[in-house]
Specification:
Layout (H helix, E strand, L loop, with lengths): L19 E3 L4 E4 L7 E8 L17 E9 L2 E8 L3 H9 L28 E5 L2 E5 L6 E3 L6 E3 L18 E2 L6 E6 L8 E7 L5 E8 L10 E2 L3 E6 L2 E3 L1 H5 L5 E3 L5 E7 L8 E5 L3 E2 L4 E5 L2 E9 L23 E8 L8 E14 L11 E6 L21 E6 L5 E5 L4 E3 L3 E4 L9 E9 L4 E8 L9 E4 L10 E5 H4 L1 H4 L1
Antiparallel strand pairs: 1-5, 2-32, 3-4, 3-33, 4-5, 6-7, 7-8, 8-9, 10-11, 11-12, 12-13, 14-15, 15-18, 16-17, 18-19, 20-22, 21-22, 22-23, 23-24, 24-25, 25-26, 26-27, 28-30, 29-30, 30-31, 31-32
Bound molecules: 4-hydroxy-3-methoxybenzaldehyde and fe (iii) ion.
The site of fe (iii) ion has 8 residues, from loops.
Amino acid sequence: MQFPKTPNYSGYFAPSGVEAEVPCLPLIEGEIPADLDGSFYRVAPDPQFPPIASDDIWFNGDGMVTRFRFHNGNVSLQQRWVRTDKFRLEREAGHALFGAYRNPLTDDDSVKGKIRGTANTNVVVHAGKLYALKEDSPPVLMDPETLETLDSSYDFNGRMTSETFTAHPKIDPRTGEMLAFGYAAKGLCTRDMVFYVINPQGEISKEVWFQIPYYCMMHDFGFTEDYVVFHVVPIIGSWERLEAGLPHFGFDRGKPVHLGILPRDGEAGDMRWFSAPTCFASHVMNAHNEGTTVHFDVPMAPGNMFPFFPDTEGQPFEPREAAARMTRWTVDMRANDDDIAMTRLADLVGEFPRIDDRFAGAKNRYGWQLVQDMTRPVDLPNARSASGMMMNTLGLVDLETGKTDTYWIGPVSSLQEPAFVPRPGSSREGDGYIVVIENRLAEMTSRLLLFDALKLSDGPVATLGLPFRMRPGLHGNWVEAAALAPAAAL
Ligand code: V55
Ligand code: FE
């Protein structure tokens, strides 16, 4: 039993399998700001066992959570797999039991009907709880201090009836609420969705059920002071595809995109749908509203960004159509037509947009993201990521001036998703740091970098060595130490 020798399991993408506690990471260069007191949590798909089939996509690996704890100028590291139901069942068996990504028809009979979630997409702290998330299943609760799995299928004390919970919930800094949704909420491939409001105490305080125009990957969403925003893009799926053994999702360029806007104080009947010609957008940078006008900012590509979810008509993957640029989608809830106006905000090509989260839902000035700078040399033959892209640059877009600031990480490295870290004591937007993991592809090692958030081109202010390779991850978040203190009080 060996991991396959495919790109999904080789080189920098080789499974890591490392659970660790490292009390003090070595500082290679610069200085760790002594007043930073908090944790950077991130998660990566990291398969425990070789797949049942001959290959599997990166998106299906078991969630491995890392915590970088900053305290008194020291950074420690903890890393543990999430003990999902899938993880425990497979560990007991000593081999994989669950088959292909989001296709239960490929599972071993012994696990029929079990929760298939891998908790591999995001880790979020709200109301003192650490949620490890995968959009096809309920949240998994972990202990934010020890990374012990506390509940492999959390249902908010019985209040969550959806079968799924997004990996991209949003915390509204104004109200302290966590806003979330579930899609395929009444079963695999169903068009049923539910929007949840989770109050500052961590309890579901509102739910709205509705249907989307067609079943698709509802990966992220946006919120503003008065609205929530759901984008429907043609990464479609169906039981027919699963029965035919095709990947769960495929890109159907024949379908339009839709934007659903729900007033936060409204019900399903208050929702309005807008449409535009086909395109692709996955992650949401931010959204805001001016009266009934709603702005929604996303890296947008003309075509499919995911080669592993191929074109439904068999068209070849086209890297140039996968290039995403930050674009503002604007609609007016009082408009007579259903059109979405689209405005390019920056020319940088890339994905993984982040903001200073204290400005989530409000008009933000700054956006950070990974950038694919194709003018830069790449000195390795197999350096590209699973999506075929190489994120070799960290970028900042100033939406007020239109200016950008970038830092190229060199010809043999790439970057994982950044996160914003506020400077202690400051509330000014963008005043703080960007934390990001560097993939050193030639050495097969990793580093943790800290940048001054508004001076990326100056290079890192601190560079820390990591004792083992961090497998490419998805999402993570900075959590102030004080945000974990209420955990004891609740
Ligand atoms: C994404 C990631 C997933 C997934 C669906 O766009 C979408 C990212 C890591 O898993 O299941
Ligand atoms: Fe995501």
